[in-house]
Amino acid sequence: MAGAPDSVALLLFFVFWYAGNMKYNEYNTAALTAVGGKTSGLTMTVATMQLGVCLVYAIITWAVQLNPARLFGLQMPEKQNVPQVTKGDLIKSIPLAFCAAGAHAATVFALGGDPLFGQIVKSAEPVLAAIVGTVFYAKAPSFYKVCCLPIIVGGVAFASLKKGADGSYSLKFDATALIFGMLANAFAAFKGGENTKLMSDKGVAQRYGGVGNQFAVTQIVGFFILLPIMFATEGEMFGTFLEKLKTEPSLQYNLIMSGLCFYIYNELATYTLQVTGAVTASVANTAKRVIVMVYMAAVTGTVLTDEQKLGSGIAISGVLLYSLIDDLLKPKKKVD
User: Fold this and answer.
1) How many helices (H) and strands (E) does the chain have?
2) Distance of alpha carbon 235 from alpha carbon 2, whole angstroms
3) For residue 67, what are the β-bridge partners?
4) What is the pTM of this model?
5) What percent of the chain has pLDDT over 90?
6) For 119-141, what is each residue's pLDDT tens digit?
7) CB atoms near residue 39 (< 10 Å)
8) Phi and psi dihedrals of 193, rounded to 5?
9) pLDDT tens, 185-240?
10) Of 5, 49, 76, 20, residue with least CA distance to 268
11) How far apart are CA 69 and CA 18, in angstroms?
12) In this structure, what are the phi and psi dihedrals at residue 17, rounded to the nearest 5 degrees?
């Protein structure tokens, strides 16, 4: 690969993956604020239009036949031609695109409700992944992983508590962030299963010609899946959205940038996780969650409560343990 050595490129991919994720959260929050916040009735519209930006970006990469993502690692862009997928391939891709679009839209709702608590709830993704994998894909987690799930659930539950003036605790949390955060986790769990199922078909994988094309097609199909849902749920507000889009530079900028950051950081995450081991990937994902939370706390000026700090720490530690425990407890090979 022309350009920087792979080791340097990998480090830069990590840096820009994290930076892209942080900026996505910032631009997404700003875009939602520009349309009037979580009560504006335009959250689904923002989520859909972000995938619209992804659609435009993907088409541009095919038009110029180059994917510029590797430039972030100081390497030459990869060639990216239009995938030679068939109609049948696209039909097979619909379940994956539906789950990916659902995960994206639900995440936008969750982060729109409360950017920080939404991140805490999303850290519980392994819980939904374990349930979905067991029930729908016959891929049950190990006994040790199951033992980690109460730690994650307990952490999220503790982060939902608030101490009253009398010293007693009561549940106090943003319901939108909790409900849609868990919905996003469920969609993400199904997305993982559907992705594995789709790409296990070697013919489909070959016609896609790489994960870059598969991701592009997934976002495009996802956009067209969300579009009718957007009009069904927020169609009466679409004229208001267009008026705001025409007159408010803040919405224009943050909508475009959130869509671009979403697309690019996901591609960079794919590059890094493809070449790192499972342990490194798990640690990287856990560290990303912490860094994004700290960054969003600084950007929004929101101070985490002691319960949120401790609860998120417990939940995220549980996620890390969940990811590593099978490797940690794996029987050591006997040396003859």
Assistant:
1) 13, 4
2) 48
3) 78
4) 0.86
5) 35
6) 888 888 888 888 888 888 888 88
7) 9
8) -65, -40
9) 899 888 888 888 888 888 888 888 888 888 899 999 999 999 999 999 999 999 99
10) 20
11) 14
12) -60, -50
| Per-residue exposure over 129-162, b if at least 16 CB sit within 10 Å of its own CB, e if not | bbbbbeeebeeebeeebeebbeebeebbbbbbbe
Q: For the chain, what is the mean pLDDT?
A: 86
Q: Quick check: 44 pLDDT over 80?
A: yes
Contact (Cβ atoms closer than 8 angstroms) between residue 292 and residue 117: no
CA–CA separation, 269 vs 253, rounded Å? 24
| CA–CA–CA angle 246, 252, 257 (5° rounding) | 165
User: Is pLDDT above 70 for 253?
Assistant: yes
- Give me the pLDDT at residue 18, please: 87
CB 145 within 8 A of CB 326: yes
Closest CA to 314 of 120, 172, 167: 120
Residue with tokens 């700003």: 30
Both tokens assigned to 73: 């690692």
Looking at residue 281, what is its pLDDT?
A: 62
Place of tokens 């868990």: 182
CA dihedral 22, 26, 29, 32 (to 10 degrees): -120
Distances (CA, A) of 229 to 25, 105, 141, 194, 279: 23, 11, 34, 21, 38
> What is the rounded (10 degree) CA torsion for 104, 155, 304, 320?
-70
The DSSP secondary structure of 240-262, one letter per residue, reads HHHHHHHH-HHHHHHHHHHHHHH
CA angle 50, 54, 55 (to 5 degrees): 115
Six token digits for residue 287: 């560290």
| Torsion (CA) 159, 165, 170, 175 in degrees, nearest 10 | -70
